[in-house]
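Weekly modeling sync, notes
Attendees: S.R. (lead), two postdocs, one rotation student

Agenda item 3: backlog of single-chain predictions. S.R. asked that every request posted to the team notebook include the full sequence so nobody has to chase files. The rotation student volunteered to paste the first one in as an example of the format we agreed on. Action items at the bottom.

Example entry:
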Amino acid sequence: MNAKKSSKHLWIIPVYGIFYLLSFSFLESHVVDHREIIQSRLDDLIPFSEIFIIPYFLWFFYIAATVAYFALFQKNLKDYYHLLATLAIGMTLFLVISLIWPNGHTLRPRTFERDNIFVDLVQYLYTIDTPTNIFPSIHVFNSVACCTAIGNSSALKKHKILQACIFILTVSIVLSTVFLKQHTIIDVIAALALNLICYQLIYKYQNILAFVKALGEKRKKKIFHSDSF
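Predicted structure, as returned to the notebook:
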């Protein structure tokens, strides 16, 4: 009974994971006559660099390890639900946007100046991931969401070296999305903006509620004083 009770919160991960993967597979295979190209001139100025394939692929381990830690080892369930709520909002919104506003870019290089293992990995990446349904960048959004969760974790705040390493990894993953020509600057900015909104709604909601409550009390006092006269 205790084991079932302690793991009751874990059902969200496989249920949402299956929903997201099925939805994403549908979007990727769904034939769309027109996709909105959302790249900018700034994207053309960013050089291609295959070395960024390392942090790009580290993303998969980073996200999985972060979710696993908060699900299995984080004693404060509030931190766990904050992370899951953030990821769910961003990923669900991404699916909705991709469905109603198909988008993509044409930035990928057709030929490569160098021939090495990193280029081989990039070419492999290009075969399994199309340059479509890119807005906002889930690579960026999930990375920043995990970095935020770790930074706000009641158990991990005191580990400064870990915090620094996670921050560096997150920044390198964000940069990898544009240097590998997987995403555009617009995708990155949109993901960062969505992160900021989610942070205010999920991590700072108590401050927002307190502010709204204070406004309500102030209005009541104002009405009371006006009625007194």
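Discussion: group reviewed the output briefly. The CA atoms of residues 10 and 115 lie 44 Å apart.
Action items: rotation student to repeat for the remaining queue; S.R. to check formatting next week.
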